[in-house]
Specification:
The complex is a heterodimer. By secondary structure, chain A is mostly beta strands. Chain A is built from no helices and 11 strands. In chain A, the strands form 2 sheets. In chain A, strands 2, 4, 5, 6, 9, 10 and 11 form a 7-stranded mixed β-sheet that branches. A 4-stranded antiparallel β-sheet of chain A has the order 1-3-8-7, with no helix packed on it. Classes of the chains: A mainly beta, B mainly beta.
Chain lengths: 113, 114
């Protein structure tokens, strides 16, 4: 069964550094998303992306965050200057069309020291 | 923003028992989804519900979309050790309210004693 893949599985970085989290959504899906889950807390929406532009973003997704689809398969989340509170699991998801269920990747655990 | 209240927060049951968990909201949702998350993995879709009143099964799992569109429950029958994990409900808003973003409940941690 097709799946969303994310790399790396774990990223450790120092505060203030830039990180790029990578995702390969399911190939025929048109909508892409990033969610995050701080340890022990619920999964929170960050951003959705369709037709090469951001369609929605939450208040968490501030100017330090950006997303890009650099080619036909990858979808990336960049955090420009990481803070300690950015430590979390970051999940990429995709859906076939608007309103269809989201399928999640296994996440990237980001640790900011 | 929209909030989903999921209960119970955790359950510790004996293998073979049935399990029930639910989510409620003050807002109406267009779609209810139930996901399972195991350690080190992302949420895996279990059941999707699209119509108010809809009752859907997936093996030993049964979920219902409440008539008011503000609640949903998930039942697991005859639990087995591999049912262990965290179960999340998630709601997709009505088209007029927002896009396709999901609001997640706080999760129900299920532990099964063999």
């Amino acid at each position: 069964e097709p799946e969303v893949t994310q790399t790396p599985s774990h990223q450790v970085t120092q505060m203030g550094q830039e990180v790029i989290l990578r995702c390969v959504p399911i190939s025929n899906h048109l909508y892409f998303y990033w969610y995050r889950q701080i340890l022990g807390q619920k999964v929170e929406f960050l951003v959705s992306f369709y037709n090469n532009e951001i369609s929605e973003k939450s208040e968490i997704f501030d100017d330090q965050f950006s997303v890009e689809r650099p080619d036909g398969s990858n979808f990336t989340l960049k955090i420009r200057s990481t803070k300690l509170e950015d430590s979390a699991m970051y999940f990429c998801a995709s859906s076939e069309e608007w309103g269809s269920p989201l399928h999640f990747g296994n996440g990237t655990r980001l640790t900011v020291t | 923003g929209q909030q989903l209240n999921q209960s119970p927060q955790s359950m510790f049951i004996q293998e073979g028992e049935d399990v029930s968990m639910n989510c409620t909201s003050s807002s109406i949702f267009n779609t209810w989804l139930w996901y399972k998350q195991e350690p080190g993995e992302g949420p895996v879709l279990l059941i999707a519900l699209y119509k108010a009143g809809e009752l859907t099964s997936n093996g030993r799992l049964t979920a219902q979309f409440g008539i008011t569109r503000k609640d949903s429950f998930l039942n697991i029958s005859a639990s087995i050790p591999s049912d262990v994990g965290i179960y999340f409900c998630a709601g997709q808003p009505l088209p007029r309210d927002a896009g396709n973003m999901l609001t997640f409940g706080g999760g129900t941690r299920l532990m099964v004693k063999p």
